[in-house]
Specification:
about 130 residues; mainly alpha; single chain; 6 helices
Length: about 130
C-alpha cells in the first residue's frame, strides 16, 4: 500500500502541468480576445482558475486518486504503467472532450493536452527511488 500512496502523490505533476497551461491560456485569451488590461487579466485568470475552478480541482484530485488506487493496487509492474496512465487519461478527459465539442471552449483542449503531458512526465517519476 505504501507504493500506491507514493504513486498517488505523483499527481502533483498533473496538477502543476494543468494549472500552468490553463493559467497561461486563460491569461493570453483575456489579454488578446477579451481586451483586458494586464491587471484585469491577472486577477480574472487567477479567480477563474483557482476560485471558479475549485470544483474542477476537487473532483480531479478525488477521481485521479481513486483511479490510481484501483489501477495500481493489484499490479504495480512497470510494464503496464503506460496502459494504466492512458486509461486514466481517457476516463478523466472524456467529459472535457464532450464539453469541448458541445460548448466550443478551447480551454478544454488545453486542459486535455496538459493532462496528457502531465501523465507522460508523471510516468518518468513514478518508479524512481
Amino acid at each position: 500500500m505504501k507504493e500506491v500512496i507514493k504513486i498517488v502523490l505523483t499527481n502533483w505533476i498533473n496538477v502543476v502541468s494543468i494549472f500552468i497551461a490553463i493559467y497561461v491560456a486563460g491569461f493570453i485569451s483575456a489579454i488578446i480576445k477579451d481586451k483586458f488590461t494586464f491587471s484585469e487579466a491577472l486577477f480574472g485568470t487567477t479567480y477563474s482558475v483557482v476560485g471558479y475552478g475549485s470544483v474542477f480541482w476537487i473532483g480531479f484530485f478525488v477521481v485521479i486518486a481513486l483511479l490510481d488506487v484501483l489501477l495500481f493496487s493489484f499490479n504495480r509492474e512497470p510494464r503496464y504503467t503506460n496502459y494504466k496512465l492512458a486509461l486514466e487519461w481517457i476516463i478523466i478527459s472524456s467529459p472535457f472532450v464532450y464539453w469541448l465539442i458541445k460548448y466550443n471552449q478551447w480551454i478544454f483542449l488545453v486542459a486535455i493536452l496538459a493532462f496528457l503531458i502531465g501523465q507522460y512526465l508523471r510516468r518518468r517519476v513514478m518508479f524512481q527511488s
